[in-house]
From TrEMBL:
<keyword id="KW-0326">Glycosidase</keyword>
<keyword id="KW-0378">Hydrolase</keyword>
<dbReference type="GO" id="GO:0042973">
    <property type="term" value="F:glucan endo-1,3-beta-D-glucosidase activity"/>
</dbReference>
<dbReference type="InterPro" id="IPR017853">
    <property type="entry name" value="GH"/>
</dbReference>
<keyword id="KW-0732">Signal</keyword>
<feature type="signal peptide">
    <location>
        <begin position="1"/>
        <end position="35"/>
    </location>
</feature>
<comment type="similarity">
    <text>Belongs to the glycosyl hydrolase 17 family.</text>
</comment>
<dbReference type="InterPro" id="IPR000490">
    <property type="entry name" value="Glyco_hydro_17"/>
</dbReference>
<dbReference type="Pfam" id="PF00332">
    <property type="entry name" value="Glyco_hydro_17"/>
</dbReference>
<dbReference type="GO" id="GO:0005975">
    <property type="term" value="P:carbohydrate metabolic process"/>
</dbReference>
<dbReference type="InterPro" id="IPR044965">
    <property type="entry name" value="Glyco_hydro_17_plant"/>
</dbReference>
<protein>
    <recommendedName>
        <fullName>glucan endo-1,3-beta-D-glucosidase</fullName>
        <ecNumber>3.2.1.39</ecNumber>
    </recommendedName>
</protein>
Length: 403
């Protein structure tokens, strides 16, 4: 959800450009959200917590601020996390977990109780901007949830409407690539025949309330499943021949944009050509099992760094050039208790101590491999408090200006 506002700069005379730079630095550091108010956001991060070694939510907020990550998504509505985000300016999508869908779908009163306890109680100081109703329901193996997804989403929206929050909090539901029958070339993508009867009424509802289509798009998974036929450079945004879509006469030099445009093509065929696609998850594993091709630190760094550069351009895709690409990267930390293959536990951008797992261009933190003399650990930042950390950044910036 976009949020824009004008910034008032007081008029006064400054003796030198140094003081102007200091003023701007202080404005950025002490603003609740550094850049989101002046430009359309494009980059967010998923904050998963299936782990037993993660820092406390208050410390995570410190990390998010230092890294200038202003949009996050969590998979539940944990009150400790929501309380920690109070006053931070960070915008958040919370999750209504799959196990609650049946209960919420039964009646509006249950949805109302959930929204009051997990959303209204924290607004406006905690900037809850969306509710993801379930995760990867359609196309999944739990068929009984397919039928309750739409009534659950409707009841959640009804509760928001009755509370006057329908324009503040968006209702959505992220999907996996499993909802598609095919996605190559992008223009050929359609929804699976068994999914379509459930997907179309859901899309009709989301179209009525102005919600986008959320898709979890992972070039890593596509490459891992077929490394012999997919060019690794195409998956990693590196130089390659790309692919040509004969129907649209469009060329794709990376798989990520092709996956997004495949979703647009499926929406077109279903009758929802004006609906925006937002990537609710994407990322690359830094470690995997022997049969998980491409899962290593080098590729994870390359993918996430290049993705961040792409999103920073604030441009659209070949098929939808005017629709700015927005994506939530998976994930903030490695989650050591997640089941499944090794890759599932190794998508994190940061280590539990707050140091960078690998350098993808974040500012405010340094890689854990840096010399001890310049390494500011996560525990030190949290212990010193945000004000002292801000002072450190200003001091560093002041030194740079003097040089």
């Amino acid at each position: 959800m976009e949020c824009t506002s004008s910034v008032y700069l007081p008029t006064f005379h400054m003796g030198s450009s140094i003081f102007l730079w200091l003023f701007l630095i202080f404005s950025v550091i002490f603003s609740p959200v550094s850049a989101k108010h002046s430009v359309t956001w494009t980059y967010g991060v998923n904050y998963g917590r299936i782990a037993n070694n993660l820092p406390q939510p208050e410390s995570v907020v410190t990390l998010l601020k230092a890294a200038k990550i202003n949009h996050i998504r969590i998979y539940d509505a944990d009150h400790g996390v929501l309380q920690a985000l109070k006053g931070s300016g960070i915008e958040i999508i919370i999750g209504l977990p799959n196990e609650y869908l049946k209960e919420i779908s039964i009646g509006e009163d249950r949805a109302m109780n959930w929204v009051q306890e997990n959303v209204q109680a924290f607004l406006p100081d905690t900037r809850i901007r969306g509710i993801a109703v379930g995760n990867e329901i359609l196309g999944g193996t739990t068929i009984e949830l397919w039928e309750v997804l739409l009534p659950a989403a409707k009841n959640v929206y009804s509760a928001l409407y009755r509370l006057g929050l329908q324009h503040t909090v968006e209702v959505s539901s992220p999907h996996s690539e499993a909802v598609f029958a095919n996605s190559f070339p992008p223009s050929a993508c359609i929804f699976r025949p068994d999914v379509a009867p459930f997907m179309k009424p859901l899309l009709e509802f989301f179209s009525q309330i102005g919600s986008p289509f959320y898709i979890n798009a992972y070039p890593f998974l596509a490459y891992k499943n077929d490394p012999q036929h997919i060019d690794i450079n195409y998956a990693l945004f590196k130089d390659n021949r790309g692919i040509y879509d004969a129907k649209t006469k469009l060329h794709y030099d990376n798989m990520f944009e092709a996956q997004v445009d495949a979703a647009y093509a499926a929406l077109d065929k279903a009758g929802f050509s004006k609906m925006q696609v937002i990537v609710s998850e994407t990322g690359w594993a830094s470690r995997g099992d022997p049969d998980e091709a491409g899962a290593n630190v080098k590729n994870a760094r390359t993918y996430n760094r290049n993705l961040r550069k792409l999103l920073a351009k604030k441009k659209g895709t070949p098929f939808r050039p005017k629709m700015v690409i927005k994506a939530y990267v998976f994930a903030l930390f490695n989650e050591n208790l997640k089941p499944g293959p090794t890759s599932e536990r190794n998508f994190g951008l940061f280590k539990p101590d707050g140091s960078i797992a690998y350098d993808v261009g974040f500012t405010g933190l340094v890689p854990s491999a840096a010399p001890p003399s310049i390494l500011v650990s996560f525990k030190e930042i949290a212990g010193q408090g945000w004000l002292r950390w801000s002072y450190l950044l200003v001091s560093t910036a002041w030194a740079v200006v003097l040089l």
